TrEMBL record:
Residues 110-130 are annotated as: Disordered. It comes from Winogradskya consettensis. One of its GO terms (molecular function) is DNA-binding transcription factor activity. This is MerR family transcriptional regulator. Gene3D superfamilies: 1.10.1660.10.
Length: 248
């Protein structure tokens, strides 16, 4: 895993800050090709969170080096592809600055029974696939996909496209059905997700109601943090329960 192409530009290195400095608008143009939803407010938020430290002119304008851009790519890719919270990304950057490999421990050759396996990078939610492509990529039958749509586990986007989350959901369901689970068993997953979503929506509401771009950026980051913590909690609870079932 190399979240931001660190082999080409080490995001932890800081030399060369006097060469080819760019304005925040120029940096935004560099990043938007790969990260189209990036905004100036997002870049300012990442600076406020200590993920990047651009220079300032005498007039107070931000000036970014190519190393700063590499750090931003590292952060944005880790958020997009792995849903990592900023706290974890900051720790990875600090480890890189020390010359450590923060990702080595995430590359186990074998996963012990009862331990948490390395998560595969999920599809980006802004990708689009057709119904035929979704079926081909996941190996799902047409009947199964229709049943998942009927119970609300998968929803198509007008005019009939499916996003990256739909791909992940259907792939997971296909895997679960191989072990004998039926679609009717999956209603509990939808119910649990809806309850969790309702709780998180209440927590995010004060930030979402604010029109301040900085508040919107904090809301997006808080949502990622909540999702990451929820995944850890869910995995730990299931793992502990299975350990009891297996008598371990």
């Amino acid at each position: 895993m190399n979240p931001a192409g660190a082999a080409a530009h080490d995001p932890g290195s800081r030399p060369g800050r006097d060469a080819a400095l760019m304005s925040i608008g120029e940096v935004l143009a560099q990043l938007r090709t790969e990260f189209p939803d990036t905004t100036i407010s997002k870049l300012r938020f990442l600076e406020a969170e200590g993920l990047v430290d651009p220079q300032r002119t005498a007039s107070g304008y931000r000036k970014y080096s190519w190393n700063d851009v590499a750090r931003l790519r590292f952060v944005l890719t880790a958020q997009r592809d792995q849903y990592l919270p900023l706290r974890v990304i900051r720790e990875q950057l600090e480890a890189l600055e020390r010359g450590d490999d923060p990702l080595a421990r995430q590359r186990p050759s074998l996963v012990a029974v009862g331990s948490e396996p390395e998560a595969a990078a999920p599809e980006t939610t802004d990708s689009r696939v057709s119904r035929d492509d979704l079926i081909e990529r996941t190996g799902a039958e047409e009947r199964l996909l229709s049943e998942l749509e009927q119970i609300g586990l998968v929803t198509s986007r007008p005019p009939g496209w499916y996003d990256g989350d739909a791909v992940v959901i259907v792939e997971a369901v296909v895997g679960l059905t191989r072990y004998g689970l039926e679609v009717r068993h999956l209603r509990a997953f939808r119910t649990g997700a809806d309850r969790e979503l309702g709780l998180f929506t209440q927590l995010l509401a004060p930030l979402v109601r604010q029109q301040d771009p900085a508040a919107q950026a904090r809301a997006a980051e808080t949502a990622r943090e909540l999702q990451a913590l929820s995944q850890r909690l869910h995995s730990a609870l299931v793992r502990a329960g299975l350990r009891d079932t297996l008598g371990r």
